[in-house]
Design goal:
This protein is α/β, with parallel strands linked by helices and 371 residues long. Helix content is 42%, strand content 16%.
């Protein structure tokens, strides 16, 4: 099936071509046609499956059909993190390039002045994280009475991050007569209940979980004493084939220490985690994305929603104690069908974590000599 068969208008088809997409991903094939026909969608799909285009294209098409002369807030996308929000807004700009729709993004951690100015000028589509949206709603800047299409992105992460009460406060204000596209990587009971309350006779769709899409990633484990991990990391990063690397640390403190140790070994790296300001995180991410910076050290929370193509290596400096986290981490490489490498450092005390990861992915990681 090609993009031409999905029922998209020419303005959006040409945008997918310009983005270099040759064919729709599985979730796009399954979800775009019913979404275009106006149905609610319950989609089980994670980052990396092409889910952003899955909701952005139908949203743009729906709003374009009924565009008036003046922007009016008719589309709302709610997403858990600032990074995801910024990326979705950038995707709307790309896919909507040929359409006359206004969109903007609001999130916390930065001044609200520019965000309020944009809202006052008028937008058709708003991308938002829950906290800042509630804040600006409470101050009267975000009228939700005309919302025709609502997207809830990464619902299970909203739950993980404690945002479900905020999400409920927001959805209570939405008009009943609307279309809703609901995305979640997993469907724990709380998320099912939330979906039941928000969706009307949805098309229920699921695509392969990351644990099978990560087959494209070459995975290896290094059995290494804790004290030797830093030296091993520096040695690996000195290899010129290791070009664009995301290093994971379980803690913020650990991430800072890794950056300091790498600096001593002559390797430039930057850490991103929750203690860094939003502007520092954005700067680091931009430098990494543009290739100026080749090593980014991240904690799991900070890495949520990082969408950078061309990550050649993911290195797990520590093994996560939740095995699904391993799958999320290594999903940062091998995106959209490219191949990638994931190396994990495993000290003796981390062997039990390794065992649960291997059970989850149903595969034993081959060991690599540490030299
Ligand atoms: P997402 O799951 O939305 O985070 O998308 C993951 C990555 O896949 C992004 O870098 C998209 O640009 C890319 N992508 C989305 N749809 C397609 C497609 N049909 N073909 C190739 N790449 C795609």
């Amino acid at each position: 099936m090609s993009f031409d068969d999905l029922g998209l208008i020419p303005e959006l088809l040409s945008a997918t071509k310009r983005s270099g997409y040759t064919e729709p991903t599985p979730i796009q094939r399954l979800a775009i046609p019913p979404a275009l026909s106006g149905r609610d969608i319950l989609a089980c799909a994670q980052t990396g499956t092409g889910k952003t285009a899955t909701f952005a294209l139908p949203l743009l098409q729906h709003l374009d059909r009924r565009a008036g002369n003046k922007p009016r807030l008719r589309g709302l996308i709610l997403t858990p993190t600032r990074e995801l929000a910024a990326q979705i807004d950038a995707s709307l700009a790309t896919y909507g390039e040929n359409l006359d729709l206004w969109h903007t993004v609001i999130f916390g951690g930065v001044s609200d002045k520019a965000q309020i100015a944009e809202l006052r000028r008028g937008v058709d589509i708003l991308v938002a994280t829950p906290g800042r949206l509630l804040d600006l709603m409470g101050r009267g800047y975000v009228p939700l009475d005309d919302i025709e299409l609502f997207v809830l992105d990464e619902a299970d992460r909203m739950l993980d991050m404690g945002f479900l009460p905020d999400v409920r406060r927001i959805t209570r204000e939405l008009p009943r007569d609307r279309q809703t596209l609901f995305f979640s990587a997993t469907m724990p009971p709380e998320i099912r209940r939330l979906a039941e309350g928000l969706l009307d006779d949805p098309a229920v769709l699921a695509v392969a979980p990351v644990s099978s899409t990560v087959d494209l990633v070459e995975q290896r484990v290094f059995f290494v004493e804790k004290a030797r991990k830093r030296k091993l990391l520096a040695d690996l990063l000195h290899d010129p084939d290791v070009k664009h690397t995301l290093v994971f640390s379980r803690t913020k403190h650990g991430a800072n220490r890794i950056v300091r140790d790498l600096a001593k070994a002559g390797i430039d790296a930057v850490a991103i985690h929750g203690n860094k300001s939003q502007s520092a995180r954005t700067r680091a991410l931009e430098a990494f994305r543009s290739g100026q910076l080749s090593v980014l050290v991240a904690t799991d929370i900070a890495a949520r929603g990082i969408d950078v193509d061309g990550v050649t290596h993911v290195i797990n400096f520590d093994l996560p104690n939740v095995p699904e986290t391993y799958v999320h981490r290594i999903g940062r490489t091998a995106r959209a069908g490219a191949s990638g490498v994931a190396w994990s450092f495993c000290a003796n005390e981390e062997r039990p974590h390794l065992a649960s990861i291997e059970t989850l992915i149903d595969k034993r990681l081959s060991p690599r000599a540490t030299g």
